[in-house]
Write a structure and sequence with these properties.
InterPro entries: Homeodomain-like_sf (IPR009057), HTH_RpiR (IPR000281), RpiR-like (IPR047640), RpiR-like_SIS (IPR035472), SIS_dom (IPR001347), SIS_dom_sf (IPR046348), WH-like_DNA-bd_sf (IPR036388). The chain is an alpha/beta fold and 294 residues long. It has 13 helices and 5 strands. It folds into 2 domains: 73 residues, Winged helix-like DNA-binding domain superfamily/Winged helix DNA-binding domain (Arc Repressor Mutant, subunit A), CATH 1.10.10; 180 residues, Rossmann fold (3-Layer(aba) Sandwich). Helix content is 54%, strand content 10%.
Amino acid sequence: MPPKPASASTAPASLEGVIRRLEALKPSLSPVAARLADFIITNAHSVVHMSVTEVAEQAGSSEGSVISLCQRMGAKGFQQLKISLARELVQPIKFIHEDLERNDPVDVVVEKVFASGMQALQDTLKVLDMSAMARAVDIILKAKRIEVYGIGSAASIAEDAHYRMLRIGLDCKAVVDSHIQAISASLTGPDVAVITVTHSGATHETLAATRLAKEAGASTICITNFGKSPIQAYADVLLQTMARETQFRTEAMTSRIAQLGIVDALIAALALARHDKSVETIAKTFDVLSIKRF
C-alpha cells in the first residue's frame, strides 16, 4: 500500500541529504523503488532538470512510483525532492538565474538577463510546431467561449492572454484561483476552448483543471516547456517553449518571455483570421480606453 502524503504541518520545507537518504532506504525498498533510487543517485545532476514523467520513463517505472518514493522519503512530491537535491548540487546563485555570478555588476546582470530572454525566444521559435499553432487558432475560432488557466508566475500570462483576446472581441476569461479553476473546468463542454499555461507541466492545480476540462469535453491547448510532462496527457494541442531555465527553481523567469511570445503570435493569428471583426473591436475598445488617458 503506497505511503500517505506528508501533511503540510509535518513535511519539511527541504530534505537534507537526499542522496544519503536514498542510499539508506534502498535495502528496504521494493525492486521497482530500488531501481528508481539507483537512477536518481546515479543521475542526480540530470534529475534536477527533469520532469517526473521523464524520470519515470527513463527509469522504467511510473509517475506514481516516483511520487511514492518521494513520499517515502518525507517529501510532498517530486518537485520538493528535486529542489532539495538541487540544493546539494547547485550553487545557490543559480536559483536566482543560471548565468549569474555572485560578484556580477549591475550592467552585466542586465546583459545576461536580456540575453537569456532573447535566447529563449530564438530557441522557442525553433521548436514551436506551426501546425499545432494553426490547430490552436482553429480551435479557438470555433469555440463559443475561451478559458485561460495559470497559477503562480503563469497567472500573469493567463491574465495577459485574457486581456488581449477581449481586445479583439473574443469571449474569454482568465481563471487563476485553483478552486475556481476546478469548478470552471468541470462546467466546460465541447463548445469551450481551454488554454493552460504551465512551464513545468506538472503543477497540481493546473494539471487537475486541464484534466477536468478534457473530461468535460472541452478542447485543451497547453503552453508548456519542451519535454515530456504529465499535463501532456490531457492536451489536445501543445505549444511548447524552449526556455533553458532549470525546472527546480520555484518561480519562472525566462520561460515567461517565451510564453508571452507564443501568446502574442496566437493573438496576432487570431486577429488576422477574423480581420474585420478584430479591427472593429480594437477601434471600439480604443475609444473606450481613451477616456482613461489625459
